[in-house]
Amino acid sequence: MRNRWEDGAAPDEADPLGQCVYASRLLGADAGLVLHGGGNTSVKAVSRDVVAGEVSTLLVKGSGWDLASIEGPGFTPLRLERLREVLGVDALSDAAMMNELRCARLDASAPDPSVETLLHALIPETFVLHTHADAVLTLTNLDDGETRVREALGGDLVIVPYVMPGFDLAKRCRELFDGLRGPLPPAMVLMSHGVFTYGPSARVAYDRMIEVVDRAERYLAAHTRLTTTEAGTPPGVLALASLRRSVSRVAGAPMIATRSTDPASTAFCRRSDLTTVSQQGPATPDHVIRTKRLPMVGRDVEGYAKEYTAYYEDLCDAGQTTMLDPAPRIALDPVLGMIAFGRSAADAAMAADVYRHTIDIIDRAEQLGGYRALPAADVFAVEYWELEQAKLRRAGAPPEFAGEVALVTGAASGIGRACAKALLARGAAVVGLDVDERVAAVAKPPDYLGIVADVTDPAALRTAIAQGVDRFGGVDILVASAGVFGPSRAMNAFDPDHWRRTMAVNTDAFAHLLAELHGLLQRAPRHGRVVLIGSKNAAAPGRGAAAYSASKAAATQLARIAALEWADDGIRVNIVHPDAVFDTGLWTPEIIRARAEHYSLTPEQYRQRNLLHTEVTSDLVGALVADVCGPSFRATTGAQIPVDGGSDRII
Fold it and tell me: What family does the Swiss-Prot or TrEMBL record give for this protein (predicted)?
């Protein structure tokens, strides 16, 4: 475990909150310590109150912040003495506890404080750090966990049997602290939960955390080894798409599916005892929110849903909770590997990260005598925690295309880029293809994957589609935007090479796309959709544009035939015909100025040379394409929709 503290980079000790932010970010930067919102930190300081003057304050990580990126506003200031008074009551529900914490805030606009705030208040040291370190969790999830923890970490620590986070955990720790015969040891291990360290300075608390986790890691290195294997041949894309559709059906909404092919995940999925070791439960109940209690082994989604429903019915209090969807969040299959599911690409990526770390913990724990998770009832209590149920009730409707996947060709610029952006803005995960390397920078992961690929190369196209399916699980929407125009050329100056190149990009590549994607679109949870970016030239060709006009007309005919043939599969195929979209790479200021002068117009007048006298932009086309893919067009296929401001030639 590497100590990343740098005195030159850390804020001055006169800035305690700055030091806490710095230490928090160091912890958050190491996935072996915390993952995706896990862990919490705090500092005790003095604040100014308009009535009481100087007030002893606990600044604790607020809900919704991630340690890796937390800033000063991510820490909620609370009256420390009030928190310690709350610790003195005999019993408190979690909802009542959160109400007390909110009432103790010094800033009403600050985020809700961590559910472990009372424990931070109880610990007397100035700085308090809490992580879910993999190495420590490995030791605590053993039959002889407490013995192993002391053997690995030494005796100068407090060990707390598992208690659900919140008021009860803080009360249990207070009882343990009261029983100590000396000062509080420098570290505290919570069984199946993680580790706390603390100190008079952020540096001391951080050094202690690194030392504790480093001891655990060295112990594991001496007693275990990581199990890996080479990844096998990737399965066909349709197998993963079929599984995604089944999971989406059980979940009641489209789901993203992310496949992991790293050696450790592959080896775990091929274990002969997989059905035993994987069905114990999560490394810490906190993970259940991301991964559910158990992964699905194999591909029997209906069977998994029945078992999950039985688990819920066995442990729920009638009328007190609402059952979550019974679909798995993790699937383990010897052929497909490990697949993580989520309502968004971010959710799926977080589930995958958490379970990859769980695999490491289980693997090492098995070598130390056997992995043992908490009983199902303890995990259920966190999964159906009243605080989590309240979050679900407050959650708004998901974005329009949440859980769906779009593949956009020509995505590096112009109309293709605008289509990708419009679909991303409405919640879709997007795979962008283009020969231009700028395609990688159109948007950021995890919702976007930009791939440099030539759509006229069938092998490259097939490889790119496979990459996209591995990342997101399928394809629901195809936007075929890649196209070339080329120089103006009269028919009596016919150039076979120019003709073939234009046809290859504008027509042949579209035909290949349709052939490659039909099976994936057929398996789309909400039925597939195709939008071809056509052109006004398909219906109203222009002089000197024979290759372009003919290729767009041919592609339009292909789309119409697909609409006829694929209707029985529920796949909608429509064409959008833009014209005079001047913010694309085809139009430079010089070309616009020259064309405007030809018609005795200003450039501004030329841009609005249509019946509505409006300018057609890439963003306008992108928004229309997104609309065509949405529910408003669910009864429309084979349509040709102009977006040109009105053309008398078309009308």
Answer: Belongs to the short-chain dehydrogenases/reductases (SDR) family.
CA dist., res. 272 & res. 53, Å (int): 65
> Which residues does 298 contact at the CB level (< 8 Å), separation at least 6?
331, 332, 333
Q: How many alpha carbons lie under 13 Å from residue 445 in its C-beta half-sphere? A: 12
Query: What is the C-alpha separation between 30 and 566, in angstroms, rounded?
Result: 48
To 10 degrees, the CA torsion angle through 304, 307, 312, 314?
Answer: -170
Q: How many CA atoms lie within 13 A of 93 on its CB side?
A: 6
DSSP state of 165: T
pLDDT in tens, 92-135: 998 999 999 999 999 999 999 999 999 999 999 999 999 999 99
Catalytic residue among 206, 548, 599, 606: 548
**pLDDT over 70 (residue 74):** yes
The Cα 596–Cα 268 span in angstroms is 65
The whole-number average pLDDT for the span 268-285 is 96
Contact by Cβ (8 Å): 359, 322: no
Cβ proximity of 296 and 330 under 8 Å: yes
Give the list of residues 6+ apart from residue 62 with CB closer than 8 angstroms, or none: 74, 75, 76, 110, 111, 112, 113, 114
CB atoms inside a 10 Å sphere around CB 302 = 11
Q: Which residues pair with 297 in a beta bridge?
A: 332
Rounded to whole angstroms, the Cα distance separating 582 from 589 reads: 9
| Residues 534-566: tens digit of each pLDDT | 999 999 998 888 999 999 999 999 999 999 999
Identify whether the C-beta of residue 510 lies closer than 8 Å to the C-beta of residue 532.
Answer: yes
* 548: annotated active-site residue: yes
Q: How far is CA 165 from CA 65, 173, 192, in A?
A: 18, 11, 11
Return the amino acid letter for 20.
C
- Catalogue all structural domains in the chain, each as residue range(s) with its CATH number: 16-223 (3.40.225.10), 237-394 (3.40.225.10), 405-581+616-643 (3.40.50.720)
Closest of 500, 456, 496, 447 to residue 480, by C-alpha = 456
Average pLDDT over residues 153-170: 94
pLDDT digits 0-9 by tens, 395-429? 788 999 999 999 999 999 999 999 999 999 999 99
What value, to the nearest 5°, has the Cα angle with vertex 313 and ends 94 and 402? Answer: 75
Rounded to a whole number, what is the distance in angstroms from the first to the last CA of the chain?
Answer: 70
Q: What is the pLDDT of residues 578-593, one digit of tens each?
A: 998 988 877 778 878 8
SS (H, E, C) 483-548: CCCCCCECHHHCCHHHHHHHHHHHHHHHHHHHHHHHHHHHCCCCCCEEEEECCHHHCCCCCCEHHH
Cβ atoms of 343 and 403 closer than 8 Å: yes
Least confident piece of the model among 358-362, 498-502, 633-637: 498-502
| Residue 584: per-residue pLDDT | 81
> How far apart are the C-alpha atoms of 319 and 509, rounded to whole Å?
56
